[in-house]
């Protein structure tokens, strides 16, 4: 028997455990997590807090009993205090104070990420929260239920920040959205798209404070105001959504790290220690758009990395195909999806690109049900391979991004898309499809 210890039981750890338990009979699997719940879909927090779904129960997709039924040993509310990599020992502390050691043949680190905490005065005041775990969502949800909370400040206009700003607004609160950047969602979308998102946020009376840096929180016991480099604002609740850093506490002194502190792994999820694998938000990932190692913290990437690690630990040499970082967001009815590199992101990574834009109705003009669609295809200047795509509409255009994700993985050129066989039916699309038209208009 091979004994595998998995530290961390959210998406990546769960995927690794299921892969080992479902496919390999010679595996003894031990799962350890300091939380009291597992498998929480944090991407649904804003939907629940904003009352767009009825309850949070459906955001948990598995439970400890499911793993115990497959023969796994699972320790919840248990902290891994240290790991002796020479002796292959994981030293643990349970909730009731009992210390114990688990030995391993193979170790999978699935310790995820930790929220970035702004180092500003007043950060220890009450009513200042992050949104990461289920308990964080519960705390924010309960505060939004009270009349004491009228003004909500959200720090950070990335995905989580924009989503929770919408949720708080749907709960009838006055919402102030802050970001040091000049627009929302700058990591995933170019300005042509985020201008529309910013307009939608304004239209729904979210008070935008872009290009402002939080300097201090003031209050007595709990937060009462936020001070930025441009002013002071009365607030009753602060939600920090600045971003995340890889949680590397357990092995930062033992394993080779990426520039942001993530565990550096190969295409098999193996670290610089051949008996240690790392998966999910604590590890690097291979980008097909960059054709290089990078860091992209997404639940979909976490699941794929867990599967890859599980097979390799089990003895099947499965190599990751790499990722594109495909993602999407839907705020007040505006849907935006992207994959690969935006023009701005390509510039930051030193990739010379060109892009082609097109804007049109989803269906022929005579159709009653219709909406505008914007598309941008980003392609490398010298090879002409597609390295990114972005779309937005009040229509559900999300399915299109899967094709672009595959195009990036397969190194399809922009020219290949010019005469792509795309069907036409007025119920669905235009005879001159916006994908075709964007490709045809490329330089």
Strand order of the largest sheet: 3-2-1-7-18
- Counted up, domains total 3
Biggest sheet character: 5 strands, parallel
The coarse silhouette is globular
Low-pLDDT residue intervals, each spanning 5 or more residues: none
CATH fold annotation of the largest domain: FAD/NAD(P)-binding domain
Q: Look at the structure and give the mean pLDDT.
A: 96
Strand composition percent: 25-35%
**What is the C-level CATH assignment of the largest domain?**
Alpha Beta
How many helices does DSSP assign? 10
What percentage of residues falls in helices of 4 or more residues?
A: 10-25%
Family: Belongs to the class-III pyridine nucleotide-disulfide oxidoreductase family.
Cofactor: FAD
InterPro entries: FAD-bd_OxRdtase, FAD/NAD-bd_sf, FAD/NAD-binding_dom, FAD/NAD-linked_Rdtase_dimer_sf, NOXase, Pyr_nucl-diS_OxRdtase_dimer
Enzyme class: oxidoreductase
Short description:
The protein is an alpha/beta fold and 443 residues long.
List the main descriptive attributes of the protein structure presented here.
single chain, 443 residues, alpha/beta, FAD/NAD(P)-binding domain, Enolase-like, domain 1, 3 domains, 10 helices, 25 strands, 22% helix
Mind explaining what this structure looks like?
The chain is an alpha/beta fold and 443 residues long. The protein has three domains: 2-114 and 245-314, 3-Layer(bba) Sandwich (FAD/NAD(P)-binding domain); 117-242, FAD/NAD(P)-binding domain, CATH 3.50.50.60; 333-440, FAD/NAD-linked reductase, C-terminal dimerisation domain (Enolase-like, domain 1), CATH 3.30.390.30. Helices cover 22% and strands 29% of the residues. The protein has helices at residues 11-23, 45-49, 64-69, 134-144, 159-170, 191-203, 299-314, 343-348, 400-409, 434-440; strands spanning 2-7, 27-32, 73-75, 78-84, 89-94, 99-103, 106-109, 113-115, 128-130, 151-155, 174-179, 207-210, 214-220, 222-228, 232-234, 237-240, 244-246, 276-278, 285-287, 292-294, 327-331, 334-340, 353-361, 372-380, 386-393. The strands form seven sheets. The protein has a five-stranded parallel beta sheet with strand order 3-2-1-7-18. Its cofactor is FAD. It holds the Pfam family Pyr_redox_2.
């Amino acid at each position: 028997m091979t004994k595998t210890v998995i530290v961390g039981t959210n998406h990546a750890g769960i995927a690794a455990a299921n892969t080992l338990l479902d496919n390999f009979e010679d595996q003894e699997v031990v799962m350890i997590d300091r939380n009291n719940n597992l498998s929480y879909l944090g991407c649904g927090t804003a939907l629940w807090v904003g009352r767009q779904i009825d309850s949070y129960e459906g955001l948990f997709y598995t439970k400890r009993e499911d793993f115990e039924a497959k023969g796994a040993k699972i320790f919840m509310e248990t902290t891994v205090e240290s790991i002796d990599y020479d002796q292959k020992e994981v030293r643990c502390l349970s909730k009731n104070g009992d210390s114990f050691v688990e030995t391993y043949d193979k170790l999978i680190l699935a310790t995820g990420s930790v929220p970035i905490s702004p180092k500003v005065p007043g950060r220890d005041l009450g009513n200042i929260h992050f949104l990461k775990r289920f308990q964080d969502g519960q705390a924010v949800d309960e505060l939004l239920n009270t009349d004491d909370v009228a003004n909500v400040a959200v720090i950070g206009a990335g995905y989580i920040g924009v989503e929770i700003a919408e949720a708080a607004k749907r709960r009838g609160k006055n919402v102030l959205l802050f970001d040091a950047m000049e627009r929302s969602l700058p990591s995933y979308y170019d300005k042509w798209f985020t201008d529309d998102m910013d307009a939608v946020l304004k239209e729904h009376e979210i008070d935008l404070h872009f290009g402002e840096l939080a300097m201090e929180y003031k209050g007595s016991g709990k937060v009462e105001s936020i001070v930025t480099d441009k002013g002071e604002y009365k607030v009753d609740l602060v939600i920090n959504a600045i971003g995340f850093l890889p949680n590397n506490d357990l092995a930062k002194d033992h394993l080779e790290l990426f520039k942001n502190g993530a565990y550096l792994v190969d295409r098999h999820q193996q670290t610089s220690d051949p008996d240690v694998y790392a998966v999910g938000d604590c590890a690097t990932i291979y980008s097909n758009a960059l054709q290089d190692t990078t860091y992209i913290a997404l639940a979909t990437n976490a699941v794929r990395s867990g599967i890859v690690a599980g097979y390799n630990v089990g003895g099947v040499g499965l190599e990751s195909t790499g990722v594109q970082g495909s993602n999407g967001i839907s705020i007040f009815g505006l849907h935006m999806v992207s994959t690969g590199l935006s023009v701005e992101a390509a510039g930051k990574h030193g990739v010379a690109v060109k892009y082609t834009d097109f804007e049109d109705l989803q269906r022929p003009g005579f159709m009653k049900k219709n909406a505008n669609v914007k598309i941008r295809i980003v392609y490398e200047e010298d090879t002409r391979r597609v390295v990114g795509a972005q779309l937005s509409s009040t229509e559900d255009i999300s399915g299109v991004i899967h094709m672009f994700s595959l195009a990036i993985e397969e190194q399809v050129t922009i020219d290949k898309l010019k005469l792509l066989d795309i069907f036409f039916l007025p119920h669905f699309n235009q005879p001159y499809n916006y994908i075709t038209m964007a490709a045809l208009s490329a330089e």
